[in-house]
Write a structure and sequence with these properties.
- InterPro entries: DUF8129, LipDrop-assoc.
- Among the domains are: 33-63; 94-162, no CATH class.
- The chain is 70% helix and 0% strand.
- It has helices spanning 6-63, 82-90, 94-103, 118-125, 130-142, 147-162.
- The chain is elongated, with a radius of gyration of 38 Å.
- The relative contact order is 0.05.
């Protein structure tokens, strides 16, 4: 038997493939939304990567065209403002707060006790007697009863008594 012409064989193969795809269609429809979303996200990421690469190349090219500033007018340096830089770096640092509190300390008294942070109170406790500490502890327990303050006062009383 003589083989059929190529176009006929290709057409038969195409029809068989179409029939197979039609039979698998219900199974593929269930996963179609996930596939479409996944491919869309991949395409979006590839586009973002290409845009970023182009921007980097553009920055490289343009950086050669712009002159480099020696010292921008908005720049400040430590030697220009020593006090401001020191205060900024100490902000939020509990040890620096404690040192500042020690410098402002009034011996034997704690003014505005309720407004003190734990670091500020810790700095002032060094100069108090056991009686002063017990009075503060009683006040703390009667008013705010903050656990960290109560614990610190108890520890300080124990330390002072052992000395």
């Amino acid at each position: 038997m003589k083989p059929l012409p190529l176009p006929v064989r290709v057409a038969a193969g195409l029809a068989a493939s179409a029939l197979e795809q039609a039979r698998r269609l219900p199974q593929q429809l269930a996963g179609l939304p996930v596939t479409v979303v996944s491919e869309a996200l991949q395409l979006s990421m590839r586009v973002q990567q290409h845009v970023t690469e182009l921007a980097i190349k553009g920055d490289d090219v343009l950086s050669g065209l712009r002159p480099v500033e020696e010292e921008p007018e908005w720049a400040t340096f430590d030697e220009d403002e020593p006090e401001a830089a020191e205060e900024d770096s100490d902000e939020g640092d509990p040890w620096a707060e404690e040192e500042r509190a020690l410098a402002q300390e009034v011996p034997g008294a704690i003014p505005t006790y309720d407004d003190l942070s734990i670091a500020q109170l810790r700095a002032r406790l060094r100069n108090l007697t056991v009686e002063d500490l017990e009075e503060l502890l009683a006040y703390e327990k009667a008013h705010a009863a903050r656990p960290e303050f109560v614990g610190m006062l108890n520890r300080r009383i124990t330390t002072v008594r052992s000395q």
